[in-house]
Amino acid sequence: MSAKPRISCIISTYQDADLIEKKISEIQQQTIFDQAEFIFVETGSPARERELIQPYTEQFSNVRLVTTDDRRTLYEAWNLGWEAAQADIVCYSNMDDALHPQCLQQVVETMEADTGIELCSVMIGYQHEESPGEMDSFDVDRLKKLKIGRRAGPFSAWRKNLSEKMGMFDGKYRIIGDLDFWSRAAAANTRAVLIKKVLYLYTIAPSQLSKRMDKSPERKYAADKGVKLQWHPALERTSLLHRKIYRMFPSPYLVK
Q: Which residues belong to any copy of the Glycosyltransferase 2-like domain (predicted)?
């Protein structure tokens, strides 16, 4: 990469060795692959994904690797990627989720066209881990059958300098750090927009921490530090409206 990247995508990996080739293939399909950087963050994973990712960092100058020998929470890992990001716009993507080939391009074009936008998300389709034959497919007929989410947690993009206004992710969380982040963004009156296209697939898996752990201690922690937990009201209202329309008329929201 000879120029400053337009967007930095943080990808945290832990016990995901079997997903590396899938994720590398996915990011290579981004329409602005050569204008973006992809920061894989591996913190003390027993699977040693760093050893599998390292050859790709040598092949592609815009694929980077950040590692620690000690285990960090997901939100601490995202902060490591945020700090390392070279672009003015930052986002994240989970290893088992999927970015539409146009996702990063549409995010960048939206946020570059209006510098007042501080946070951004897209319409998100929910897929189940039990569909291996179709996983990560953005086939239009398939997307029409998927549930559309109402929250920005699975995929968020933001200005790198947003940390100066509201801080970074709170690494003490293990489950709801994304909700805390968006709650603080709402309290700080940040401007958030939804791109009204299905550009991301979120994978629902029984093994996820959010499915196995009690959230009440983290909710108490949020209350103790004065955070009113809520997804950004403006973005949530927009999401709720357009997912209702999507159920009846999905085609305008799909990118072929």
A: 8-154
